[in-house]
């Protein structure tokens, strides 16, 4: 109870301190980045490119550098207020790993002593994200903030293209960092981990899950005034 009371006092003190701080812009308030509640001023869209790594049954035996495949995504979304937003994204890329099933390999032997062959396949992931503007939550809204931290979480479906095609439900967590370039444009650094059920690489190995780790960079365009 004492701890709760102390936390409340500290929170109130922090709010009062923030409210009484001198405005660095003087009497001129910064131009709002979003006019929340407007019809078209908080929408955004963008694209990223980068690399991804698949975590499958035999991939730990593969050199990490050889496991990095290309990745790309496009997305669009909306900020509902200063803290929370949502977006829909379509991402995909190429996977590189190892398999002990010859029919699933590209025919190249990697380690004959373990019957490991190289495996290549492509996939796509359609997902929905719930986004949280951590920087606004910590420091308050600032239309001219240069660096912004946006953790996010969501769900989607992922499907491999190569036959036999496999589709899995795919929850994910991510951390988006944006660097403001101007009123309309941000530079993105996006890191995301997707969780998949066993067999996404079309090989059932007894694992409870498989996964994808993606790191990408790109641009974000903001609509409206």
Automatic annotation (TrEMBL):
Residues 1-21 form the signal peptide. Keywords: Signal. This is Outer membrane beta-barrel protein. The keyword Signal applies.
């Amino acid at each position: 109870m004492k701890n709760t009371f102390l936390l409340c006092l500290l929170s109130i003190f922090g709010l009062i301190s923030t409210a009484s701080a001198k405005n660095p812009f003087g009497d001129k308030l910064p131009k709002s980045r979003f006019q929340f509640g407007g019809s078209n001023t908080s929408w955004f869209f963008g694209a990223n490119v980068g690399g991804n790594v698949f975590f499958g049954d035999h991939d730990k035996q593969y050199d990490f550098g050889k496991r990095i495949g290309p990745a790309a995504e496009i997305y669009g979304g909306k900020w509902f207020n200063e803290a929370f937003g949502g977006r829909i994204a379509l991402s995909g890329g190429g996977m590189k790993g190892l398999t002990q099933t010859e029919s699933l390999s590209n025919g190249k032997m990697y380690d004959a002593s373990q019957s490991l062959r190289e495996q290549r396949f492509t996939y796509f992931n359609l997902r929905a994200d719930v986004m949280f503007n951590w920087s606004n939550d910590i420091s308050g809204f600032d239309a001219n903030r240069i660096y912004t931290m946006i953790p996010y979480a969501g769900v989607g479906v992922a499907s491999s293209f190569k036959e036999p095609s496999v589709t899995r439900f795919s929850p994910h967590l991510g951390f988006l960092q944006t660097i403001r370039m101007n009123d309309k444009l941000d530079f993105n650094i996006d890191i995301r981990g997707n969780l998949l059920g066993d067999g996404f690489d079309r090989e059932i190995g007894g694992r409870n899950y498989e996964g994808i780790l993606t790191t990408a960079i790109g641009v974000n365009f903001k609509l409206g005034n």
